Amino acid sequence: MRPSRAIDISTGLFVLLGLVAIAFLVTQITSKEVGVRSDTYRLKAQFENVGGLKPGAPVTMSGVTVGRVEKIVYDMNLFKAVVTMRIDNHFNRIPNDSDASILTSGLLGGQYVGLSPGGSEEVFKNGDRIEFVQDAIVLENLISKYLFSQAEKTPAGAAPAATPAAPAGKE
Amino acid sequence: MTALFGELWESMRSFLERIGALARFFGRLLWLTPGGLLKVRLLIEQVYNAGALSLVIIMTCGLFVGMVMGLQGYDLLQRIGSEDSLGVGAAMALLRELGPVVTALLFAGRAGTALASEIGLMRATDQLSAMEIMAVDPMRRVVLPRFLGGVIAMPLLTAVFIAISLYGVQLIGVQFFGVDQGQFWSQMRGTVELSDIREGLIKGLAFGVACSLIAVFEGYNSLPTAEGVGQATTRTVVVSAVVTLILDYIITALLL
User: Fold this and answer.
1) In terms of CA atoms, which chain B residue is nearest residue A71?
2) Would A85 be classed as within a structural domain?
């Protein structure tokens, strides 16, 4: 009886471990707060477009991580995305006219929020909203803006005389 | 010339014969499976043998596979400035391919050989014949629980392997090289889907069936000599590895 019980127990442990591993794999997809410490304060910012920003992405100042994106929701009244960030309490003297922009790290890297300090005497407090924001840069928008600006330019002034190399219709 | 063709035909025929015997053996096992699942006592013992005893080797190898992926992946990705994608890359590779395949190869080496040599020795020492004389079906009493134990253990081992490997990747990538922890996990979560996990577990199950089947088949049909048992053990590892890799390609092609 004794050895068989030991086998039962270790088999149970093994099966349990396997199921825990499966549960870990399944739940790691759903969002979980990463590395957010308890002594933080919240800041909010409204963006027209957050691009590929995800909860858990870092909030940086001059490249140093000062906090994390907590959640991103779409506000039906503002028609904007509201990004809630948690900033570490060590960095509690950020001027309240600082601006937030969504940036991309590296060529293919993930997106993050960059804060650059303003000149105000007042500092951000818990729950404040960041007024000055810059949206994520969407490559398609950038290209279409460029194309449209070119298309507007050509017929107005430069069509007959300048730029013989580039045919106006193509642009 | 004719002798050569004769030899070729002969080896071809014995190969086909073996495949046929394996298929019949598999069919018989499947037919007996519902009854075998009810014998919980025997089953637990074999899950212990195939699974719990393989746990240490699976965990050790998983950790080091993950750590080496962390090293190589970081080195490669930081050249194009996207080391944040280390988590996604490692998770996808582990879930879809590396996890199930490496687990199956380790499983064949650890549990498969144990099964084959155990059953082979039973055959060589006439224990199987003794059971038949006592009207105990060795297929039900010996082969089936071992087969089912392996089938149950493999997906669980695969999951453990993948989880430990991810820990290893995280250990090297995040703790050692300082990849951003939030990006590591959030990018992984953004890209990995439930279907990827399902693919990994389906592969684990399929490899479990294949490796366990080959092990018990080789053991059951081994020659009743010391040499025969040795050959059966060797063949178990070789055939399991080849079948695992071929099956991997087929399943990937089907699921993609």
Assistant:
1) B186
2) yes
